[in-house]
Design brief:
The protein is mostly helical. The radius of gyration is 18 Å and the shape is globular. It starts with a helix and ends in a 7-residue tail after the last helix. About 45% of the residues are buried.
Length: about 290
Amino acid sequence: MLKEGMDGFCMELADSVPGVSGGTVAFIMGFYDKFIGSIHDLAFGKRKEKKSAVMYLAKLGAGWAIGMALAAVVLSALFESHIYAVSSLFIGFVGGAIPLIIKAERKILRDIGKGILFGLPGLLLVAGITWVNGRSGGAAMELGQFAVGTSVKLFFIGMIAISAMFLPGISGSTLLLIFGAYIPVITAVKGVLSLEFSYIPCLIFFGCGVFTGAVTVVKAVKVGLEKFRPQMVYMILGMMIGSFYAIVMEPTTLELPREALGFGNFHIIWAAAGVALVLGMQIIKERSGGNEFI
């Protein structure tokens, strides 16, 4: 129970920071395959598989919910006030993760010529999403008052954003920013935690979209990992490399935009802490007998 809860907690903290993906954390901590498989079994498995999936995902979800509450109360404020330190932390985090994944999957990554055809699109996808994010001027949504149009829009935004959780390198929070929903959703969660229940109807629509997107996308991801594993791993690595650009540009997407992360505002100590964090996760995975990446 404690391990699965911690896994979910770490995934949600990562997903709450635009530019970082919870899928990357699942990769590093060695439960990515089990996570994908459990959601697949919940949607498409037999009765016994569904029961097992529910038990696992409930434990993961408990940690995820705690992480979401913490992110809404603490992390969002930290992100605004110490953006360069946080960005440097995640530069180190992703930078430390890539070599570990390459080492774990070295046998299927030997065909570089073939793999680059899939790695490059992954990189361009994440960089392209970040580029669009920097130029999107979507107006913020008011979720405290129920409106059918806004709720339907939230449903589809939830579907699209949750897809990022299954693809390391793409941040669900970045997608929320593109659609102008990041701050409204965070504000709505804070409101519910403060017993402002007027936000609940819109959050229910958002949650339904998240669930629908999860059971739809996971099938494609699972099939891809089983039948086209080398191509998928190269694409995921490309996405992770592309996430460097997303993290560098993140200060420009704040409510009060700031300059992009550069050598002048880069925090080497925080970056080193990010590397240490990912190495610590790897040690925990090995000591707990975690599976290889995917």
